[in-house]
Amino acid sequence: EAEFENITLDQDGPLGILTINRPKSLNALNIETFREIAEAIMLIEENPEVEALIVTGGGDKAFVAGADITEVAELEGAFNGRDLSLQGQDIFQQISQLPFLTLAAVNGYALGGGLELAMACDLRIASPGAKLGLPEATLGLIPGYGGTQRLPRLVGVGRALDIMISGRLVDAREAHSIGLVNEVVDQPLDRAKEYARNVLSKTAPLAVGLIKEAVRRGMDTTFGDALEIEADLFGMAVATEDRKEGTQAFLEKRKPNFKGE
Ligand code: CO8
């Protein structure tokens, strides 16, 4: 068990549960918390038992209310800020590149860096009272941990510009209607676990990783190149043992027994 001060990392069977846990500051991400998140991601990557990751917030008010504004207030000059942005972007990229399902259980405020963390996950499941936003402009900042790029990819350019330029908070119902969150339920962590267990019981793990890779790399390039990426990854899926097992199980009218090979 690793020792952390600002987060907890738990395992529930095949599920890794990363909780950002500074409830007195609404789980704001200070530099030390970022460092611990990076270490937790390394531990998760090295742990073959973890087959899906859920990220959530401690306490009952917030997922993560953003970067720690007390630290942001002390930043001096452009270079310092650019570096911080690159470091945060890198950690969230590592989360988005995990080769298995990642879910954000958004149990309250997901603002600024907090929404950027949630958007680095594959899916977002929010509580009815959750509020999401990128209010950086109200602080004289812009989103710096991937938000200006991930939000328009999720909800479209017009809606993303509205949310970032106004700095307004989006409630769970609206977030659901624009596709920023996938589901709204009273107990998002319980639902995230149920969703993840269902995925693990039904789908081939390598296929899940390849789907994520196809979507992620495809969004970065032209449509034509993206189709080539899809074909390459399709070829890799066809070459797996689990493809043989999955198709055979269908024909034999039984449940497949995927091995991740
Ligand atoms: N950082 C530090 N402390 C925070 C933060 C934060 N982001 N959010 C809340 N807190 C603290 C409050 O200061 C307060 O502390 P205290 O009890 O000591 O006064 C405590 O948490 C509880 O918060 P409130 O009393 O404000 O609770 P309310 O229910 O009244 O309000 C809100 C909740 C609306 C969420 C309010 O706290 C708020 O507006 N928070 C700030 C939200 C925000 O602007 N987040 C974006 C931050 S900017 C960002 O994430 C930039 C990322 C890019 C950086 C790029 C690199 C440089």
Explain what this protein looks like in three dimensions:
- The chain is of the alpha/beta class and 261 residues long.
- It folds into 2 domains: 7-200, 2-enoyl-CoA Hydratase, Chain A, domain 1 (Alpha-Beta Complex), CATH 3.90.226; 203-251, Lyase 2-enoyl-coa Hydratase, Chain  A, domain 2.
- 50% of the residues lie in helices and 16% in strands.
- It contains 11 helices and 10 strands.
- The chain has helices at 31-46, 69-72, 77-96, 113-120, 147-155, 157-166, 172-177, 188-202, 205-219, 223-238, 241-251; strands at 7-12, 15-20, 52-57, 62-64, 101-106, 109-111, 123-126, 131-133, 170-171, 183-184.
- Strands 1-2-3-5-7-10 form a 6-stranded mixed beta sheet, with helices on both faces. A 4-stranded mixed beta sheet has the order 4-6-8-9.
- Strand 2, helix 1 (31-46) and strand 3 form a beta-alpha-beta unit.
- Helix 1 runs parallel beside helix 3 (77-96) and helix 9 (205-219) runs antiparallel to helix 10 (223-238).
- The longest helix is centred in the first third of the chain and has 20 residues, at 77-96.
- The radius of gyration is 19 Å and the shape is globular.
- The two termini are 29 Å apart.
- The model has no long low-confidence stretch (mean pLDDT 96).
- Bound molecules: octanoyl-coenzyme A.
- Octanoyl-coenzyme A binds at residues 25-26, 28, 65-70, 72, 81, 84-85, 109, 111-113, 135-136, 139, 141, 143-145.
- Belongs to the enoyl-CoA hydratase/isomerase family.
- Pfam families: ECH_1 (PF00378).
- This is 3-hydroxybutyryl-CoA dehydratase.
